[in-house]
Amino acid sequence: MSEIAAPVIRVIEGYKAAVAARDIDAFMRLYDPAVRVFDAWGVWSYEGVPAWKSPIENWFASHPDDRHVVTFEDISCVSTPAFVSVAAIVTYAMVSPQGEQVGAMQNRLSWVLEQGASGLSIVHEHTSVPVGFEDQKAILQRPGKS
Questions:
Q1: Which of 12, 75, 106, 125 is least crowded, fewest Cβ atoms below 10 Å from its Cβ?
Q2: Residue 21 is part of a domain; what is its CATH number?
């Protein structure tokens, strides 16, 4: 990664911490108010933080007895002084109060981050999963990976 790696790592760690804490305000602060999100689930796109906030609130409210744990792998980024492009494989897991993983899925994630006065913010997010040719079903785990 380039010299902008530390600010990118701060965004990634902020994302993981906000999810773990189910802190909707901290999570939304990672995003530019006019963010465009292409999510992998159900809606073609979300335009702006108010539109994006509702599905995040639903996600954070899901599985109230379990912990949400997010991990990033295979992170790559390209940066300029004003913008950073990030691509990663992200695992979204639920962990029971007993510490057992009770569910997980992986997404391909791309972010465009813009440098502003208060640091980097996500101006575009795109998540996706491959779809099987034969069965048209989403593939939520990389082969050979957890």
A1: 75
A2: 3.10.450.50
Task: Give per-residue pLDDT as tens, 54-64.
Answer: 999 999 999 99
E strand or H helix at 55, and its extent? helix 49-61
Q: Is 124 exposed, middle or buried, given 0-12, 13-18 or 19+ CB atoms closer than 10 A?
A: middle
Q: Which whole-number Å values give the CA distances from 52 to 4, 37, 55, 73, in the listed order?
A: 26, 7, 6, 24
Please, what is the end-to-end C-alpha distance for the chain in angstroms?
A: 24
Cα–Cα dist 42/120, whole Å: 28
What are 89-131's pLDDT values in tens digits? Answer: 999 999 999 999 999 999 999 999 999 888 899 999 999 887 8
Q: Output the six-digit token pair for 105.
A: 């899925």
For residue 138, being part of any structural domain is answered with no
Helix (H, G, I), strand (E, B) or coil at 11: helix
H or E, element range at 61: helix 49-61
